[in-house]
Amino acid sequence: xxxxxxxxxxxxxxxxxxxxxxxxxxxxxxxxxxxxxxxxxxxxxxxxxxxxxxxxxxxxxxxxxxxxxxxxxxxxxxxxxxxxxxxxxxxxxxxxxxxxxxxxxxxxxxxxxxxxxxxxxxxxxxxxxxxxxxxxxxxx
Length: 140
Hints:
This protein is an alpha+beta fold. The chain has helices at residues 2-19, 47-63, 65-69, 86-91, 112-118, 123-138, and strands at 24-25, 35-41, 73-79, 98-103, 108-110. The protein has one domain: Glutaredoxin (3-Layer(aba) Sandwich). It has a five-stranded mixed beta sheet with strand order 1-5-4-2-3. A hairpin with a 4-residue loop joins strand 4 and strand 5 (108-110). The N and C termini lie far apart (53 Å).
């Protein structure tokens, strides 16, 4: 029975990350800011889920405050279980905790796998990688 449960959990988590593994896809043009950093999460959050959001928010506040203040970058966190967020959840086809970087032209980069790999156990590396991706998306 233990092996069946373990196998089920492996399949469940594998499918969760594979569903979010699209590197870039096109979506409708966004109207707010030049770069959106959206973190989607459920109501029940683990330590890693919180680390993904908290470290992303910290990096943006530390390194991009001016760009946030002038509207170049927008960071937002959305609970996928709340009815008010259903339209965005459907628009970006989110089913699990997901970190997206979305350019004004609608191009989105799914940064979820990297975020979950490093946010809790190596936040410095997570911030470095996220910073590099944001710079790349901004054309810096």
